Amino acid sequence: MTAEVEQFIAYLHSVKKTTPNTEVSYRRDLLKLVQFLQGEGILSWDKVTLTSLQSYILFLEKEGKAATTISRNVASVKAFFQYAVAAGTCGENPAFALRAPRVERKAPGILSVQEMDRLLRQPDCSKPKELRDKAMMELLYATGIRVSELISLRLKDVNMEMGYIHCAARERDRMVPFGNTAKKVLESYLTKAREHLLKGKQTDLLFTNCSGGQMSRQGFWKLIKLYAERAGIDGDITPHTLRHSFAVHLVAGGADLHAVQEMLGHSDISTTQMYVTLAGRSLRESYAAHPRK
What is the pTM of this model? Predict the structure, then answer.
């Protein structure tokens, strides 16, 4: 059964052009399902029924898995069986009527303008590493790009003269502008810190780790946590918090929603619309904390 899983992953990679992270998630979810099914005496995919899949969902619930995790597993299972039926591995799709648990969407965490200012002031720009960190945070907050896009940026993707970056996303390419604040920090990083971090290595990556290699998302997340602690900001701060804060602050400032959608790279405007509600809440909280005299 694992052979069919690997064939499915290869299909995702070569045909669907999925990201490595997506492929890792699908493989992990499906191999866990295989382990469960084999424990139940089911040794081939054409023997799987809706009842056996529902039993697996109950098993995940008893393990204490979160609704979001179970929903992701259901999505993985459904995608696999759609492929399996098309490939002739299964005659019928046992996952067709499989239902995921209801997931309550949690509003994303955002920082106030004052908190963002404190966060961005934490790096010591006299140190090459922290100047890099400052440039990365400023660019992330100035553009709202995803962390995966940030750490994958190449030198050729940045147009310093015109003040925009080119994001080559799988869905669609987009040009995202950035302001003078990010531009000045980027220029400083490129002239004073990047060569120091490269340690003689050659790469066209805009940002590298301290060994001259590509930074990881986890590595950047740790940096955000460090500077949030320095700034005295409580709560679960992630790199995505800067993306959400960027969008909310733009909308609160009166930016056109379609322009924000384009910068964020959302394919559906409904995804961007949640920032209207968050912007309204942010403004009310700001007024409550700093009422007019």
Answer: 0.58
